[in-house]
Specification:
disordered N terminus, alpha+beta, 2 domains, five-stranded antiparallel β-sheet, about 350 residues, 8 helices, single chain
Length: about 350
């Protein structure tokens, strides 16, 4: 049996969340020591990107559009050089004609490709918050005031091979969507984007680099399936023990009365009654609800891992909002009072993301 290599670092999945960042940094340092040229290239790229302005709207001009030959472009240049040398050696007039015809076509293609990006306006609306583990879509709007269409405009997150290609109509606009996957919760700056075209011949790559100024809020990944809600706490100045029932029964139920809002009907129990052969409806007991308050705290999750606690709290927030309950959140140094609705859910999830 071969001996296990004690120098090999453990997998990231077996490490606590706080140690992930340090482990990644050590891994990058080892890779940089093995390949100093690639490390130098990455440092130069970061230095150059840091000099780019942050903006959610970018107007492309000759100052921020770059152009270089592609692999096929270099092969065409080599072919033209061979044709030119052969035409000179053998005094081939048709060889001269073919060489300069192809060279002229390449130069015209370079001009058309550069004109496809020059003058294009890019705009990125603020992205919607996302949960950790989901891809964050970015919708970029491209506008053109030119009287001719622009073809083959591709956009991608820098370093990604997932390109989204579109055509921009004359004096019109188009939208293209790309996505990236955040690796941690919190407030993230959007990644650098690359816009390029190889229209019309593919011999030249015309591109620009764009650093959006918008930021993305990433919520903790909610625990699935959602665990039962914790018991309610008696309101201040009211007696009575807290309810110990779970999700869907925390607020108490009673028989359905004519005129009860549909939001108060416990449809889960209605489905269970229908499966049992009855059609009895039950509603949430609003009077009982007024005697208790639903508070979410990390201690009430019963979990030791901090990230697992945040995931369970996020699941509770979504479940309470889905049930139409009033709830509050208590974190060390932060307290969000009782409430419900989209604004309450957003405040609680943002507090969990930034905790």
């Amino acid at each position: 049996m071969p001996k296990a290599d004690s120098r090999r670092p453990p997998p990231l999945s077996s490490l606590p969340h706080a140690a992930h960042s340090a482990t990644r940094q050590r891994a990058r340092a080892r890779l940089a020591a093995l390949n100093p040229l690639s490390a130098l290239r990455r440092r130069l790229a970061r230095w150059w990107q840091a000099r780019l302005p942050l903006a959610d709207t970018l107007q492309l001009t000759q100052r921020n559009v770059y152009i270089l030959p592609t692999g096929p472009g270099w092969m065409l240049a080599l072919t033209l050089l061979v044709l030119l040398v052969a035409s000179i050696n053998f005094q081939l007039n048709l060889g001269y004609l073919l060489t300069f015809l192809l060279a002229g076509s390449a130069v015209v293609g370079m001009h058309l490709g550069h004109a496809s990006l020059r003058g294009l306006a890019l705009h990125l609306p603020p992205p919607q918050p996302q949960f950790l583990g989901h891809s964050a879509p970015l919708e970029v709007r491209l506008g053109s005031t030119r009287r001719t269409p622009r073809y083959g405009i591709a956009l991608a997150v820098q370093g990604s091979s997932q390109w989204a290609v579109t055509d921009v109509p004359a004096q019109g606009a188009a939208s293209v969507r790309v996505a990236f996957a955040p690796t941690r919760r919190g407030l993230h700056r959007l990644p650098t984007l690359t816009v390029e075209t190889r229209f019309p011949l593919g011999t030249f790559r015309v591109w620009t680099v764009w650093r959006p100024a918008a930021q993305l809020m990433v919520y903790p990944a909610p625990e699935t399936p959602a665990p039962p809600l914790p018991p309610g706490e008696p309101r201040a100045g009211r007696g009575g023990a807290a309810s110990s029932q779970g999700a869907g029964e925390f607020e108490g139920v009673r028989a359905y009365r004519r005129g009860d809002p549909l939001q108060q009907v416990v449809w889960k129990k209605a489905a269970q009654a229908l499966a049992a052969g009855t059609d009895a409806l039950v509603s949430r007991d609003a009077e009982r609800l007024q005697r208790h308050e639903l508070w979410f705290t990390p201690e009430r999750t019963g979990l030791p891992d901090p990230e697992a606690r945040l995931s369970r709290l996020a699941a509770w927030v979504l479940l309470a909002e889905r049930l139409g309950l009033d709830y509050g959140l208590r974190l060390p140094g932060t307290e969000i009072p009782q409430g419900s609705g989209a604004a309450q859910q957003r405040r609680c999830l943002e507090a969990l993301a930034l905790f």
